[in-house]
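new request in #modeling-help
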Amino acid sequence: MSEIQDELKRDVLRNMLSQGRRADGRGNFDYRAIQIVKNPLQNAEGSALCHLGKTQVLCGVKVDLAMPFSDRPDEGVLSTGAEFSPLGSHTFEPGPPSRAAIELARVVDRGIRSSETIDLKALAIEGMDKVQAIYIDLWILDHDGNLFDASMLAAMAALQGTRMPKVEDKKLIRTESAGMLNPKVPVVSCTFAKVDERILIDPTMDEHKGIDGQLTIATTPEHVCAVQKSGWAAFSQKDILDLVDQSFSKAVELRRALD
Amino acid sequence: MSSKTSKVALTRDDGKRLDGRADDELRPISIEAHVLNDADGSALVIWGKNKVVAGVFGPRECVPRHDQSPYRAVLRCRYNMAPFCSLEEHGRSGPSRRSQELSKVISEAFENVVIAESYPKTAIDVYIDILQSDGGTRCAALTAAAVALADAGIPMKDMLSAVAVGKVEGRLVLDLSKEEDNFGQSDNPMAFASRNGEVLLYQMDGLLTREEVKAGIEMGHKASREVLKLQLDALARVYEQPHETTVPLQLAPGQKFAPPQPA
């Protein structure tokens, strides 16, 4: 039954795109409305709720003390997880993280890690074998497409609002603040979907059903810092460079939502 | 819970509780119904510092099929804590012994009120996420799940409202805070059917006399009527002031969501 519905939605999507239209009236390179609520949670050291159209992604950041990785004893730990909570979509099932959830967490992690927006060296603690660990957890509350960009925005907004607890006598004192985490650069991502030979930005859930592939490009103001191509569609080499250009220009708009 | 004389003082000099409440006073509570787009029904409960979201799907096809009943819909509630929900260290989501037990008794509480016979071979899934915890999450979870089920249009014989009663420094108190739960003498989460006051969930630990059990249940039942009013008000507001569906996690406890006015 749902396969038939998906097939019909695919047809409708292709028909509309061939007439240069999208179901919600957007242009091919228009984002849906973005709204970010900063620090809606109080127990987490940082949090943000990102609304991208009807997609709702919550991000919680916890700060702990942990053993560093043995090959990087002088660096803090950064860890990103994503939970496709079954209340977020009728397609999510309870249980261990799906491949899609792991992919999402890893792409967001790569964007944050390779941009060096978090100074991991600054998370080491003088005279102590443990380091500070930053746990970023993405919680999908409502899936209406484009989880990559919504999650990247939620993670970035949560990191920007993260208060670092004080470290004293080799213990964390959560009731006292040692200032903000202050990520150095804002990282945002742009996700492009490919349908036949057409490309559109910020696909909704219905559009996801009809697309052949997608390309997510995360950027800082100067650099590309993470890319993920998914789906079976191939992108031409020229397409990729055009979309890198597009993502630099669209990123300006996304970063405005983070202010 | 174990020590009879708590090591942490839980009463202020003026006789009030640490957070300034009287013994029979609830924490401020906000309830919003219909906060999710994809779920068939949903609710957000902000109860003191607790923040709980519930989403309902169904009746829908029941997979795996060995879960099916030829006579009624199976009701599957899942209580899950987000890894960032506590003030302490980063946690782990997914089933723990505690969350498995809570999921079981919460499912059974709703089996009493949901009219499941109308939907044989189907499943009604109730997913409850604890996004922030501060003592009393299971009562907030039950309260949210009841509103979400009603929002999903699942036929129920009765509404369900939950509250905890505890014993702190020798006195019965309503709606234990985290400190009172950790250092008090007894914790009694309970859920009531709204029409006849029957007890649909009851758990207890610590030590109480028979008289204290009686007084505790009466105290809980009375308070559950206040919770019920908030639940019904939340459901009515979905239709009185339709607005875009969002989870207003930023609400202060006790506050009602005021949807932004269209410009």
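bot summary: Chain B is about 25% helix and 25% strand.
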